[in-house]
Amino acid sequence: MFEPKIEVLSAADGFRRRHLDDAEKVRIVEESFRGHRQVSATARRHGVSRSLLTIWRRQYRSGELSGDASPAFIPLTVSDGQPGPASPVPLPPNPEARVEIVLRNGRQLAVPANVDPEALARLLSVLDGR
Questions:
Q1: Residue 116 covered by a domain
Q2: Separation in Å, CA 97 to CA 42, 78, 93, 94, 102
Q3: 123: domain range?
Q4: Where a domain ends, among 5, 36, 62?
Q5: Is residue 76 included in any domain, yes or no?
């Protein structure tokens, strides 16, 4: 009589997922663009799947993937749509004004509009996981 052998595998027996930061992904993607190397060979060398490297390459080309480790701030001017004077008079700060920030990892943060930029940069680097 035939009795098949059954082997029970646990999650500990499998491969563990590596969590690469954006800088490491950018380094791998840039290596895949150099010379005439194939995507498959670069992916194999770094232990990632070819399809994942292809996704990273697409994100790199569209600007979604960057190795910049610090949060970036851009100048912003908020207008009510009404034309104003050539030299606007500064308005007193509104203590109720808040700014909502959505990070690349999906986390959201609401801070007072008059938050210290250096403190905000430190907070964002912690919340963004960099």
A1: yes
A2: 49, 12, 8, 5, 17
A3: 98-127
A4: 62
A5: no
Q: Which long-range contacts (CB under 8 A, 24 or more apart) does 70-74 make?
A: 70/121, 70/125, 70/130, 71/121, 71/124, 71/125, 71/128, 73/117, 73/121
3-state helix, strand, coil in the chain (%, to 5): 35, 10, 55
47 within some domain: yes
Cβ neighbours, 10 Å, residue 17: 6
Q: What is the pLDDT of residues 65-108, one digit of tens each?
A: 876 655 556 666 676 666 655 555 555 667 678 888 877 767 77
Q: How many domains does the chain have?
A: 2
8-58 pLDDT, tens digit each: 766 665 566 678 888 899 999 988 888 676 888 899 889 899 999 999 999
